[in-house]
């Protein structure tokens, strides 16, 4: 189903052309609801199509500065987990070409690992989406993919920046007859010796970070082959590798190292017979994490088929199934684990009138030893007036416990139940001349929330908590004039524990969920010059369940400028944290002050001239 | 009032037991008397802290190291030891020992030279002994072997390192001898405090932890046992010939913490949320009480002056810890909030 959403978004983006610099606001949602028969009606979607000049950024950087999401980051370039709509790291998922690519042992993803250089499209889905996307999607999901283009082009970029940052990337596209392809290579390293205040030494001196260096590289290869008018196959390969010195907490002497290697391969076949569409995917994904030299290897085999039938102009139905085998070779499991997870799903889209659109989705997962809930959702949108749309969604969500939750020795608990949630959201989209607004409100309750508790000498997970989540999101865009655009967004998140292991946790905000976030982007474009001003303000975040400790609110300001000479050369300089604010995203993990990055990019147009 | 009376009645006994000829000459200051709670904090969180509890007026003062000195204590406060006017706080994951005047809690120095995974400290005169697990490589193989750091407390410099067994944990000085429980092994070692020669090794149940001394001048050591083996034990060691006087098999795995009462004849320890007491003349320990309102006991202490048991609850390390004071019949006197992960208690003399 995510694929449909993605295709919807891609289709729309293709219409927009390729000159997207920043996030596309609002229209994608409208398009999914109206022009294209998606099944995510009433679900908030956002495209974060990245700028090629930001190729050296990670997904974590992109999301933190552009999305209403909070990333819990364990230092500069270090582990970054995602919190959307007030949930935890494991209640969100990353999807690669529609396949859940969370690390299966942890049930979460490190968004510092994924370089923007290897993807074309980044889309964010806010809120519960289990009926569409399966397990883990309680807070939201991030979708990355590459996109077929009929183009012959080579883009080479080089970057240099603060703290010994050096990076390079190459992106090539080719198209000939029935074949299209894309090749991407990426490399980046930094000594990462930024200075920070050592708050654990008398006088809190500024000292240099000694153990946070990283290097990473990756490559991705895509091809598309048009067999005939109706059939297409495509293949997608992905490899990324990152070696990091684990940045210790302030005043901590521990020095760990980690290597993360991700490999993914997907073969996809699609058929389009107008009224019938079918898609078959066969994929193999593998994460390997070497913490110090303790290796964990987590392969996943994935097969899915889905079929869509367009009944008439005003309704369509789709159904499908996927089969997954999750395996793990992890010393602490004491034996190699292999687990089947299968889903079946069906969706219906109905346009009762030009103004109404209604979709229903139903999914059932099958996991040995579990009883994941039957997961329905109902979404709608109603065009109240040309400039006003009302939409909403009711859904259930679930999360199957991670492999660590079940098999880690000691502590792993095979008898855990899945987390299970009920959610409602509704909102408005308003377009008025140069102004666009989107307001969403949501409410949800998640039960059987899993937490790890200390036992005698080890920790063990239990289904303990019940959490209530509600909030409001505003995203707006104002085209002040033809050169100047202001994007502004605000999120209010309440995540309140209704029951927990201790009474002192009840009624309290979950750790690392900021109550308020404000993000803005002012962009000025004039012929060969673009200038951007980014600001984000994030309110205090509690670091523990009884809200007795907290991190200070922070304001970050960044300025960037790009100069284009003709179609070939681009020079960009971006500065971050220009005020040198000392801030933390994760307790006791230092973040850098002022830093910059200089990028030079050359585009070779290889299309044969007419 | 009863407690106060008990304190008053016990005071002469305490003075006598301290062996001081005159009034005790502890430091002056706000924290000069009472109970220190060592809150280890979240691993990596840098939020270790010390709480002070004044039993006279039931006042709690949390985070006193930071409030007095204006800096964080560090990461994972493992233990604290008093000697003279000074308190020595072993901060494990910051690889240091913070020294304060415990009356005011102002910082008076730091020991960091030569340490590697420091755990516990004992003091004999002007010599400090700090147990260190040593360092480990990627595969948790020992790189620097475990040792006892011998520190000259006049300038906090490292005098020498004495080889210890694997995982040297609790460390205890008694009559010119230094006893070390090697927690990854099944033995306790005894060293001479002057020339650091190994005097003897006592073999006992796997995983020895805290050491206390009873009224007969015998050591008692709690052994956590092997993982999941339900084979923990209390072992009584003769301090002269290092032989095992008695071994009490528990049939479960206790935490590696042990305290002794003021009369030196009753031991208290715990497993899960169950607190046990053991009269050293008895055949086996008895369940004292279950801490039903606790998420999980993480530390235990015994106040000589109050004849009360202190128990710390780490509350899953997800928030502030709490401490309960218990009468020796197991009934709860009161509770108060402390920092994250209260693991032990230090009572002022």
Describe the overall structure:
The complex is a heterodimer of chains A (610) and B (349). Chain A is 6% helix and 57% strand. With 610 residues, chain A is mostly beta strands. Helix content of chain B is 7%, strand content 47%. Chain B contains two helices and 28 strands. In chain B, the strands form seven sheets. A four-stranded antiparallel β-sheet of chain B has the order 3-2-1-28. In chain B, strand 8 and strand 9 (127-132) form a beta hairpin. Chain B is globular and about 45 Å long.
Separation of the first and last Cα atoms of chain B: 21 Å
Biggest β-sheet of chain B, characterized? 4 strands, antiparallel
Number of strands of chain A: 33
Strands side by side in the biggest sheet of chain B: 3-2-1-28
Sequence-ordered SSE layout with sheet pairings:
The complex is a heterodimer of chains A (610) and B (349).
Chain A: H1 2-16, H2 27-33, E1 44-47, H3 59-66, E2 69-73, E3 80-84, E4 92-96, E5 99-100, E6 121-126, H4 130-133, E7 140-145, E8 153-161, E9 165-176, E10 179-190, E11 195-197, E12 206-208, E13 214-226, E14 231-246, E15 256-273, E16 276-291, E17 294-312, E18 315-330, E19 337-350, E20 356-366, E21 375-385, E22 388-399, H5 403-407, E23 419-432, E24 435-454, E25 459-479, E26 484-499, E27 516-526, E28 529-538, E29 541-542, E30 550-551, E31 554-565, E32 569-576, E33 595-605
Parallel strand pairs in A: 4-7
Antiparallel strand pairs in A: 1-6, 2-3, 4-5, 6-7, 8-9, 8-33, 9-10, 10-13, 11-12, 13-14, 14-15, 15-16, 16-17, 17-18, 18-19, 19-20, 20-21, 21-22, 22-23, 23-24, 24-25, 25-26, 26-27, 27-28, 28-31, 29-30, 31-32, 32-33
Helix pairs in contact in A: 1-2
Chain B: H1 2-18, E1 35-39, E2 49-54, E3 59-61, H2 64-69, E4 77-83, E5 86-91, E6 96-101, E7 106-111, E8 118-124, E9 127-132, E10 147-152, E11 157-163, E12 168-174, E13 177-182, E14 187-192, E15 198-203, E16 208-213, E17 218-223, E18 233-238, E19 244-249, E20 259-260, E21 266-271, E22 274-279, E23 286-290, E24 297-303, E25 308-313, E26 322-326, E27 332-337, E28 342-347
């Amino acid at each position: 189903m995510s694929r449909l959403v993605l295709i919807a978004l891609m289709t729309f983006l293709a219409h927009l052309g390729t000159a997207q610099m920043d996030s596309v606001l609002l229209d994608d949602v409208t398009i999914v609801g109206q022009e294209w028969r998606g099944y995510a009606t009433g679900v908030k979607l956002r495209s974060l199509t990245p700028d090629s000049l930001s190729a050296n950024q990670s997904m974590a950087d992109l999301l933190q500065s552009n999305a209403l999401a909070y990333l819990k980051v364990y230092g500069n370039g270090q582990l970054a987990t995602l919190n959307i709509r007030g949930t935890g790291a494991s209640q969100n998922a990353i999807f690669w070409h529609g396949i859940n690519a969370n690390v299966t042992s942890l049930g979460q993803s490190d968004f510092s690992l994924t370089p923007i250089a290897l993807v074309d499209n980044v889309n964010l889905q806010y809120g519960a989406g289990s009926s569409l996307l399966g397990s883990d999607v309680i807070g939201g999901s991030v979708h990355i993919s590459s996109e077929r283009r009929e183009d012959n082009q080579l883009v080479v970029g080089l970057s240099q920046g603060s703290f010994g940052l050096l990076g390079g990337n190459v992106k090539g596209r080719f198209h000939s007859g029935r074949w299209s392809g894309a090749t991407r290579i990426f490399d980046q390293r930094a000594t990462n010796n930024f200075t920070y205040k050592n708050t654990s030494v008398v006088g809190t001196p500024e000292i240099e970070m000694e153990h946070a260096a990283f290097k990473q590289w990756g490559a991705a290869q895509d091809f598309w082959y048009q067999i005939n008018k109706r059939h297409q196959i495509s293949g997608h390969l992905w490899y990324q590798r990152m070696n990091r010195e684990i940045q210790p907490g302030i005043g901590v002497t521990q020095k760990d190292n980690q290597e993360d290697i991700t490999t993914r391969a997907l073969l996809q076949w699609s058929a389009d017979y107008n009224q019938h569409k079918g898609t078959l995917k066969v994929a193999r994904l593998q994460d390997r994490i070497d913490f110090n030299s303790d290796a964990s290897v987590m392969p996943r085999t994935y097969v899915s088929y889905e079929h869509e039938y367009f009944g008439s102009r005003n309704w369509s139905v789709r159904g499908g199934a996927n089969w997954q085998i999750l395996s793990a070779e992890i010393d602490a499991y004491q034996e190699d684990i292999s687990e089947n997870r299968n889903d079946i799903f069906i969706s219906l889209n109905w346009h009762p009138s030009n103004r109404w659109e209604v979709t229903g989705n139903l999914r059932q997962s099958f996991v040995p030893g579990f009883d994941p809930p039957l997961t329905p959702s109902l979404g709608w949108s109603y065009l109240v007036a040309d400039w006003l749309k009302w939409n909403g969604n009711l859904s259930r969500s679930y999360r199957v416990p991670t492999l660590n939750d079940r098999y880690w020795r000691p502590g792993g608990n095979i008898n855990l139940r899945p987390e299970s949630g009920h959610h409602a959201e509704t909102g408005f989209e308003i377009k008025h001349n140069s102004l666009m607004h989107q307001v969403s409100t949501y409410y949800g309750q998640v039960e059987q929330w899993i937490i790890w508790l200390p036992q005698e000498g080890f920790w063990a997970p239990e289904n303990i908590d019940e959490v209530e989540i509600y909030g409001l999101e505003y995203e707006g865009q104002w085209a002040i004039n033809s050169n100047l655009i202001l994007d502004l967004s605000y999120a209010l998140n309440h995540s309140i524990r209704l029951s927990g292991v201790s009474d002192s946790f009840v009624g309290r905000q979950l750790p690392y969920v900021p109550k308020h976030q404000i993000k803005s982007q002012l962009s000025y474009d004039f012929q060969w010059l673009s200038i951007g001003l980014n600001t984000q303000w994030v309110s205090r975040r509690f670091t523990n369940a009884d809200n007795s400790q907290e991190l200070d609110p922070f304001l970050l300001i960044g300025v960037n400028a790009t100069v284009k000479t003709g179609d070939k050369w681009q020079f960009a300089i971006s500065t971050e944290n220009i005020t040198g604010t000392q801030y933390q995203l994760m307790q006791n993990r230092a973040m850098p002050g002022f830093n910059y990055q200089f990028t030079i990019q050359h585009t070779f147009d290889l299309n044969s001239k007419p | 009032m009863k407690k106060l009376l008990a304190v008053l009645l016990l005071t002469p006994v305490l003075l006598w037991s301290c062996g001081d000829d005159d009034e005790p000459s502890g430091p002056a200051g706000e924290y000069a008397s009472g109970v220190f709670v060592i809150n280890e904090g979240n691993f990596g969180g840098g939020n270790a802290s010390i709480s002070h509890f004044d039993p006279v007026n039931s006042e709690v003062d949390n985070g006193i190291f930071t409030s007095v000195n204006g800096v964080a204590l560090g990461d994972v406060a493992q233990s604290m030891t008093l000697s003279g006017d000074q308190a020595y706080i072993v901060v494990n994951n910051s690889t240091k020992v913070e020294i304060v005047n415990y009356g005011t809690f102002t910082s008076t120095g730091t020991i960091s030279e030569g340490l590697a995974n420091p755990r516990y400290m004992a003091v004999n005169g002007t010599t400090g002994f700090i147990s260190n697990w040593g360092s480990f490589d990627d595969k948790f193989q020992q790189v620097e072997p475990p040792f006892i750091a011998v520190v000259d407390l006049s300038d906090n410099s490292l005098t020498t390192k004495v080889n210890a067994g694997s995982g040297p944990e609790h460390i205890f000085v008694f009559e010119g001898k230094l006893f070390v429980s090697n927690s990854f092994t099944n033995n306790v070692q005894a060293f001479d405090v002057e020339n650091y020669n190994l005097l003897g090794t006592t073999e006992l149940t796997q995983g020895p932890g805290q050491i206390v001394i009873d009224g007969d001048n015998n050591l008692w050591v709690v052994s956590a046992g092997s993982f999941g083996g339900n084979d923990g034990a209390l072992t009584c060691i003769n301090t002269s010939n290092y032989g095992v006087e008695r071994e009490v098999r528990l049939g479960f795995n206790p935490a590696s913490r042990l305290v002794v009462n003021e009369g030196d004849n009753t031991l208290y320890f715990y497993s899960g949320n169950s607190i046990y007491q053991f009269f050293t003349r008895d055949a086996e320990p008895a369940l004292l009480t279950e801490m039903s309102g606790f998420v999980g006991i993480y530390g235990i202490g015994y106040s000589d002056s109050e004849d009360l048991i202190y128990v710390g609850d780490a509350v899953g390390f997800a928030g502030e810890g709490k401490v309960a004071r218990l009468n020796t019949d197991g009934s709860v006197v009161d509770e108060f909030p402390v920092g994250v992960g209260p693991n032990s208690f230090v009572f002022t003399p």
